[in-house]
Amino acid sequence: MSKIAFSGKQHKGMIAGAILAPALAVSLWLLFPKAKPTHIPPAQISTSASSLDYTNSVSPTNTDSTSSTHLHTISFFEASSFYPAVEAVSKKPLFTLPKPVFGATTPHHLIPSPAIASLFSELKKQHPQTIILLSPNHFQAGSQIFLTSNESYPTPFGNLTTNEKIYQKILSAKNNNTPLFEENHTALGNDHGIGALAPFITYYLPDTTIVPILIRDGSTEKDMQQLTQILAPFISTNTPLITSVDFSHYLPLAEANKKDTITWDAIFHWNLASLIRLNSNDYLDTPTGMATLLNIMKQKGSTTINQRYHDNAGSILHQPKIPSTSYFILTFTK
After folding, report:
1. C or N terminus of the chain, fewer CB within 10 Å?
2. pLDDT per position as a tens digit, 229-267
3. Assigned CATH class of 3-333
């Protein structure tokens, strides 16, 4: 039987303090993920946005010798949200993780950056070797349901590299001699579902590698079961599964909260079929990614769900009428 614990609060004061000032400069893609984001070339990244000496707090040693040496050409690093979040979390994280996690969810919009920073800061405790990341395919790139790449993500704190051993194993997976994964470097490099998290991972977990996977819209329960079968053998506290997912999109706060209640009910009751049918941005942007996470956590016996964080852009920015996005951080433990 699954167990649930509500151990986090919304912490609006801390979020607002860290984010509200730079929020005026936040680009539209933070609220509207289907819009084409404006990317920052790596050469233009500045690490001087804060008075803190962040360069001394990490060692950019995340260089798996078996990983591709090729870099994605785009960086999603945004100093105006990253540095205030890291500074706030260094004083007090939004939540703590008392036990190692097998899986989690995280936003990829940068408005709740303190929540993202809190998650990866706390993951330091378990020293994961690799994180398998599932994300929506925001621009429906490629031709396969599942896309992946082994090119590295450039950040000011080093390059986020791929676990080449796991990568090659999933890339070789087939169904009736048809590959299940498409290697698509351009799609993975252009999508903020993975790229927006890269600076947080390299900052807090400089020796951790990733295996990034994009999931197209229209994927089915059969697709979810196939992805589960491929990924489940790799998942442990040393290789947790994290789904990069934003919840209700484009709705004012009151409507978003209603949709979040429906989505949370499906998660709480482990109703995978219902979750996959919520194939609309009204609810969440990767139903299959969320259902795959639940399915693998159930197989692993990691059925204690902790809701660490839940909030909405309209609430954080004190604009409840704007089209907004909702955020959850959930963790899964035994």
Report:
1. N
2. 999 999 999 999 999 999 999 999 999 999 999 999 999
3. alpha beta
